[in-house]
Amino acid sequence: MSTFKAPKGTYDLLPPDSASYLAVREAIAAPLRNSGYGYVETPGFENVELFSRGVGESTDIVTKEMYAFTTRGGDRLALRPEGTASVLRAALEANLHKAGNLPVKLWYSGSYYRYERPQKGRYRHFSQVGAEAIGAEDPALDAELIILADQAYRSLGLKEFRILLNSLGDKECRPVYRAALQDFLRGLDLDEETRRRIDINPLRVLDDKRDDVQKQLVGAPMLRDYLCDACKAYHEQVRELLTTEGVAYEDDPKLVRGLDYYTRTTFEFVHDGLGSQSAVGGGGRYDGLSEMIGGPALPSVGWALGVDRTVLALEAEGVTLDLPPATSVFAVPLGEEARRVLFAKVTELRRAGVAADFSYGGKGLKGAMKNANRSGARFTVVAGERDLAEGVVQLKDMESGEQEAVAVESVVDVLKGKLDTQARTAQ
Ligand code: AMP
Fold first, then answer.
1. Tens-digit pLDDT profile for residues 365-419
2. From the centroid of its chain, how far is CA 184?
3. 406 within ligand 1 shell (Cβ under 6 A)
4. Does residue 324 belong to any structural domain of this protein?
5. What domain count does the chain have?
6. For the segment 196-213, what is each residue's pLDDT rounded down to a tens digit?
7. What is d(CA 310, CA 414) in angstroms, rounded to the nearest whole number?
8. Which of 317, 346, 364 is where one domain is finished?
9. Residue 206 within any structural domain of the chain
10. By C-alpha distance, which of 280, 45, 43 is closest to 149?
11. Confidence class of residue 165 from pLDDT cuts 50, 70 and 90?
12. Whose CA is nearest to atom 15 of ligand 1?
């Protein structure tokens, strides 16, 4: 062990578990790539203002959880706590919205940082895959994103997740509701901080997890009773499209989510096997965000799914991903001549696309076979001086234990043939 440990609230991804993380990222990205979303990558830090304006001055993410700092040059920056504001900033900066091809559909994958109280499923450094569809107001687009997230989770084998759905209204109806809610909340017995929240962001009070607060919220005015006709019709279309496509959801009139920028459609994916940190992903429409960060009016919708929590959800459901073995062939040379011959064979196998590895460090047969076993390789190729004198190598099937001598010059073809057959029968 070294003197240092991973910082509080973070953890390292190491083999073999790291393979599941990569597979989860890949599984979430696959439906997006297949649906017209292009890959975008933005810096890990941004001007702090982008988040305070974009995510919202009244959110915990900005007021309590942001890693904000001043650089030596005097710039005020922050490690990104979420992806949407950065992606929209990048799209606007590059004028993607002016290319005449709206919506601009983008997907991303990366690390995010929030100074949170760490617990299982809640970290200070975590990983998200996200998607944004910028510049179109169309209920089919909202439905598309929810369907793609559902498809991603299902492709991983997850079953015990639920989709919660709500509409937060728009700039017509939300202010009316907001005022009605504020009136109601001011009559309750709430602590100082919560009372302050009534002024800045009353919808967030509905999200309060404390029992004594929730008890008082019975009878609070509900946004769905205040939705204007346009918002109602829009929401109804999203719901209908999901139903038609066989994607089950639950209406959750209390779902508000922790970011200020949402309008109309909001949704969350929750997993029941995760305890208190049950949200595996979430998103919604953010029609006003572009203007909030100095851009033109660009109605947009997006989501972010948490990779860490998706992996925890897989564990909770006992799903093991069907990952291809990291190594298919392991080469064990005994002696200098064998080292030269087998190193060349391993290189040839790799160039032919076969996952192959080699016993390094001049180990004896016993130690090398241990490595071969650990590698998970289906086949081991062993060669000693006597084998080579006869022009052969020993090919061992690690599953059946069978061993046969194969001519040196044909071993690559024989292995390719065997691995092809194995892949076909596994299907
Ligand atoms: P949010 O941007 O808060 O809606 O988060 C979207 C998703 O990112 C959540 O549903 C989680 O899966 C994941 N996430 C957010 N914060 C954390 C965190 N501190 N640790 C791990 N995952 C997180």
1. 999 999 999 999 999 999 999 999 999 999 999 999 999 999 999 999 999 999 9
2. 38
3. no
4. no
5. 2
6. 889 888 888 888 888 999
7. 40
8. 317
9. no
10. 280
11. very high
12. 306
Q: How far is CA 116 from CA 4, 51, 78, 255, in A?
A: 21, 17, 15, 21
Q: Are 342 and 359 in contact (CB under 8 A)?
A: no
Computed over every residue of the chain, the mean pLDDT equals: 94
CA distances from 71 to 10, 44, 75, 414 (A): 23, 14, 5, 59
Residues 313 and 380 in one domain: no
Cross-strand bridge partners of residue 45: 79
Structure tokens at 336: 């200098």
Whether 130 maps to a domain, the answer reads yes
The answer to whether residues 366 and 405 touch, using CB atoms and an 8 Å cutoff, is no
Q: Which of 278, 294, 317 is at the close of a domain?
A: 317
Q: Tell me, using a 6 A CB cutoff, whether residue 168 lines ligand 1.
A: no
Cβ of 122 less than 6 Å from ligand 1: yes
Q: Residue ranges of the alpha helices (H) in 34-162?
A: 48-54, 60-63, 84-93, 139-155
Q: Is residue 11 part of a domain?
A: no
- Tell whether 264 and 118 lie within a shared domain: yes
Domain of residue 365: give its range.
329-426
Q: Are residues 268 and 137 in the same domain?
A: yes
**How far away, in angstroms, is 159 Cα from ligand 1 center?**
20
- pTM of full prediction above 0.90: yes
Query: Ligand 1: which of 60, 79, 112 to mutate, most ligand atoms within 8 Å of CB?
Result: 112
Task: Indicate whether 350 and 242 sit together in one domain.
Answer: no
Q: Are residues 156 and 273 in the same domain?
A: yes
